[in-house]
Amino acid sequence: MVRVGFFGRLLLSLKSLIVVGLGRLPQRALGWIFHLFFLYHKPPLHQDGNLLPGRKNRLTVLAWWGIGLLCKTLDLLALAEWADLITQLLHPRARMLSATEKEEARKIFGAHLNWNQVRLLEGSRLAKIGKWHVGSESMAVCVGHTLHFSRRIVCFPGSRDMRWLVHELAHVVQLERIGLVYIPEALWAQRNGGYDHGGTAKLSAWSFGSFNREQQAEICADCYLKMALSGEEDAHCKRLMEELKQGLI
Ligand SMILES: [Zn+2]
Question: From the CA of 216, how far away is ligand 1's center (Å)?
């Protein structure tokens, strides 16, 4: 794979801002209108897949509708693409995925991700602050298509860091599919339901869209690891990954 230099990466980010920002404008405008009239509005889910009890509470629904509308408006302004371009400009060392990382991640996401838009910023100050704030050993923060890691990641087939990278890339897929609204939904998921997807019992019975945003990312990561270690695709993973590729999230 040809290594793309800083100016090449900057141009690719600029191209994404123009092509994706303008190209997806009609689709994003439609999403905004749908959201405005409650035609598409998915309130956060509990771990058991049921709607939150607050669903009946008009204020809760209205608050989520408002957050959603704000995100849809920011999508129209191509905020994620602007963030990608500015991050690349401010952090020349933000790199693209390596050949191995891309090859491994493709096993899960196929062609359903704009690979040239993804950037990795290892040893990111933002992620380090986040790590310090929550007191964890390491942390990743996903801003647009840029994945901020608190430390350098070592990715090879089946490694823990490769699994971690797949989890973060799942958030990029969520961004591409539903826009910035995935961020408040993921933050909600971290405090309600968490990361545990419930294992085989739920993986065999639930649809991909029934899991919260963090559980969805964990499913991608676990399915990747299972496939990388066994060399075979698990039947449940196959169905769930197919739903993800179809955009049923
Ligand atoms: Zn996550």
Answer: 9
Domain assignment of residue 20, yes or no = yes
196 within a domain of the structure (yes/no): yes
pTM: 0.90
Question: What's the number of domains the chain is made of?
Answer: 1
How far is the centre of ligand 1, averaged over its atoms, from the C-alpha of 9 (Å)? 25
pLDDT tens digit sequence for 167-209: 999 999 999 999 999 999 898 888 877 899 888 888 888 889 8
Cα 164 to averaged position of ligand 1 atoms, centre (Å): 9
Which structural domain, as residue segments, surrounds residue 178?
Answer: 6-245
Number of CB atoms found within 10 A of residue 18's CB: 12
Q: Is 163 exposed, middle or buried, given 0-12, 13-18 or 19+ CB atoms closer than 10 A?
A: buried
CA of 214 to the centre of ligand 1 (A): 5
